[in-house]
Amino acid sequence: MLRNESAVHDISVPLGDWLIKNEQISTLIWNREWTEMLHRGDKKELEQYLSSFCFSVLDLSEKDQVFVVRTIFVSIITDLLRLQSKKELLRPKMLTKAYEKIRDIESWENISRFILNIPSLLTLLVDELLEKSPFYNECPRVDEAMRLINEHLKSRYLTVKWLADQLDISTTHLSNLFRLKVGTNISNYIAKRRVSEIAYDLVHTTQPLADIREKYGFISHSHFIQFFKKHKGKTPLQYRQYVLNMAHHG
């Protein structure tokens, strides 16, 4: 684990000297330990790791502190986007959220802002990017299932049975593989992905509810409302109004 520093030194260290002295720390997001932590997706563990990194740069001048940490934070996002692109899982909504976060990162002007915003960065990484494109290179069928889910999320025929047929395996085998590699029920995963996309459209577009319902393959309006409320605790219209009101008052 990286070391903690509790105070800024009076004399800053040149960036080149710091990189030589802290070679292991400066390459943290490209090492095996970081990759394994991303596999696990434990936000507390990841937050501690990134916080320790932020404290480790306090030997540098304020300008270099921001430069180094900004470079690392942006690289974390772009590396995951590159992974998704290779798996053909990159989608406009993911890019939008990633670009918005990168824009935020570019505006942070001191190390405190980076430390305070680590939780929001991890929300993007774990809940958005990793959930939609986990690290399962060792299981091609799970990778292919993820690709199919993302590609056909708006189709009403997207079911566990349909996925299993596409992969030429039984539904039991697919469910067991998914539970083993992803750690969740595949039906629940598909439902959560649909709800996430619907929620995005509700908040970030002005599309009528009927258009969104049809877009995601729901024939029955009452089924659409019940489905969304089951996962979000609010009807689609209530959710849209709630989030927009929060943004307005915030």
Secondary structure elements and their pairing?
Blueprint lengths: L14 H7 L1 H4 L5 H9 L2 H14 L5 H25 L5 H16 L3 H6 L1 H15 L7 H12 L8 H8 L3 H12 L3 H19 L4 H7 L5 H12 L3 H14 L1
Helix pairs in contact: 4-8, 5-6, 5-8, 6-8, 10-11, 12-14
Question: Which terms would index this structure?
Answer:
250 residues; mainly alpha; Arc Repressor Mutant, subunit A; 2 domains; 15 helices; 0% strand; disordered N terminus
Report the end-to-end length measured between terminal Cα atoms: 37 Å
Q: State the shape.
A: globular
**What is the string of helix and strand elements?**
HHHHHHHHHHHHHHH
Rg on CA atoms, Å = 21 Å
How many extended strands?
A: 0
Mean of residue pLDDT values: 83
What is the domain tally? Answer: 2
Please report which band the strand proportion falls in: under 5%, 5-15%, 15-25%, 25-35%, 35-45% or over 45%.
under 5%
Oligomer: single chain
Largest sheet: none
What can you tell me about this protein's structure?
- The protein has 250 residues and is mostly helical.
- It has two domains: 15-132, no CATH class; 140-249, Arc Repressor Mutant, subunit A.
- The protein is 72% helix and 0% strand.
- It is built from 15 helices and no strands.
- The longest helix is centred in the first third of the chain and has 25 residues, at 62-86.
- The protein starts with 14 loop residues before the first helix and ends with a helix.
- The model is unreliable at 1-9 (pLDDT under 50).
